[in-house]
Design goal:
- This protein is of the alpha+beta class.
- Helix 3 packs antiparallel against helix 4 and helix 8 packs antiparallel against helix 9.
- It has one domain: Beta Barrel (Porin).
- GO terms for molecular function: cholesterol binding.
Length: about 475
């Protein structure tokens, strides 16, 4: 789920303390941390790059004894932002950490920076925009709502970026983020305000807010908004997730535009996960066609080849779904060494160029909330890190930490305590007529779209945290 269900305005009637916690699943002991370190410890590789953990400290709890509908049926007519869900439906990450998963495929930004051709840059940016939602595949657990003033930072020297985010508003819930390349080659920033709707059998999250990527070497800026996310079968059946809607990526320097259509499932699931679109120049001339699935891969080809193929298909030509071997991929993509060994279900058009493929998940991912390897590392709290983190960092949240460690009862109580503390602080500010002031971001105007946005104020990595709020 997207953020937005938990609220400091909700009543205690729906507290997770009223629900029994199910038994823990067993992890395969052979799938423990391959670094040889356990309980969150890490080791240093010979090249100096830290090796991140490959599993969580404890497996996830079974949700089979719980029904989302058992909670939602009592809340018909209420705003979803006013509903507190039992902690068993959460995953042990804050929404600020979920946003950080945009950076999992940062190699696509690096590719965009390296290309001299603006068309190839747009192709890489389009692939990055699609990859940003790929980690949500099968992630039906809901991230924790960030507390007002909560932050998350991530520096990955091995991947060449650093990232900072802050919860800048609680009602409505708005998360702002800023990332930059350590080589000063890009800036990636934005703010997200998920608008939630409950349709009876499904929950829809429209992620309002602008995402901006600046390629500094090329003096280019790209903006877009993510597709709508929908979780189905909240009443009965297995939860499943889809993304749909039109995403427009605009290059504000050249006038080029990429239009991506995330298709809704349709009858019999024919269009499930499919993405189709095109890149056009400022004169609306189509330069290439993009197709694939946001859960698998993305390809591009020239418009003539695409139209010829589609006409042949309509005439009943024998165009069958083709699995692409790793040898095929190597000829199309210089990132082949990083490609997973999976079978595509995308109907491959001969002559297409591979833009992106999803990373393989850890073998025990299903017992770790369907996390990717990147997500598994996000809440890692290494020895000595607490001394340099802002006191508002997600890693220090006791409810998330206890859930990650499998202490569900303690996590539930801590979640209640933090929400009550947030309510009390808000009432105190109202009593004293004191306005909340964000620490690292400020309201402004996006310089490229002219729309309201939250902009990074700078200074976080100077590490002056003396005036940070006490939220935990």
């Amino acid at each position: 789920f997207y953020t937005g269900f938990d609220s400091d305005n909700s009543s205690g009637d729906f507290s997770e303390a009223n629900h029994k916690v199910p038994e823990m699943l067993d992890l395969d002991p052979h799938q423990s941390n391959r670094t040889g370190k356990h309980n969150g410890q890490t080791e240093i590789q010979e090249n100096g790059i830290k090796r991140h953990r490959t599993s969580l400290p404890a497996p996830m709890f079974s949700r089979s004894d719980f029904s989302v509908w058992s909670i939602l049926k009592k809340c018909i007519g209420l705003e979803l932002s006013k509903i507190t869900m039992p902690i068993v439906f959460n995953e042990p990450l804050s929404f600020l950490q979920r946003i950080t998963e945009y950076m999992e495929h940062i190699y696509l930004i690096n590719k965009a920076c390296s290309h001299a051709d603006p068309l190839e840059r747009m192709q890489a940016v389009a692939a990055f925009a699609v990859s940003a939602v790929a980690s949500q595949w099968e992630r039906t657990g809901k991230p924790f709502n960030p507390l007002l003033g909560e932050t998350y930072e991530l520096t990955r020297e091995d991947l060449g970026f650093r990232f900072i985010s802050e919860q800048v508003s609680h009602h409505p819930p708005i998360s702002a983020f800023y990332s930059e390349g350590l080589n000063k080659d890009f800036i990636f920033h934005g703010s997200i305000y998920p608008k939630l709707k409950f349709w009876g059998k499904s929950i829809e999250a429209e992620p309002r807010g602008t995402i901006t990527l600046e390629l500094l070497k090329h003096n280019e800026a790209y903006t877009w908004t993510n597709p709508t996310c929908c979780v189905h079968n909240v009443i009965i059946g297995k939860l499943w997730l889809e993304q749909y809607g039109v995403v427009e990526i605009v290059n504000h320097s050249t006038g080029d535009k990429c239009v991506l259509n995330f298709k809704p499932c349709g009858l019999f699931g024919k269009e499930l996960h499919r993405v189709e679109g095109y890149i056009q120049d400022k004169h609306r001339k189509k330069l290439c066609v993009i197709y694939g699935k946001w859960t698998e891969c993305l390809w591009c080809t020239d418009p003539t080849t695409y139209e010829t193929y589609k006409k042949s298909e309509k005439r009943g030509g024998e165009q069958k779904k083709k699995s692409v071997s790793e040898e095929d991929i190597k000829s199309e993509n210089d990132e082949a060494d990083d490609m997973p060994e999976v079978q595509d279900t995308v109907q491959f058009i001969p002559g297409s160029k591979l833009l992106w493929r999803i990373n393989c998940r850890p073998p025990n991912s299903s017992q770790m909330y369907n996390f990717t390897s990147f997500a598994v590392s996000l809440n890692e709290l290494e020895k000595g890190m607490e001394a340099i983190l802002a006191p508002t960092d997600c890693r220090l949240r006791p409810d998330i930490r206890n859930m990650e460690n499998g202490n569900m009862d303690v996590a539930s109580k801590e979640k209640e305590r933090l929400e009550e503390k947030q309510r009390a602080a808000r009432k105190e500010r109202a009593k004293d007529e004191v306005e909340w002031h964000t620490r690292w971001f400020h309201q402004g105007t996006n310089p490229y779209t002219g729309t309201p946005d939250w902009l990074y104020s700078g200074g976080y990595f100077d590490r002056n945290f003396s005036d940070c709020p006490d939220i935990y």
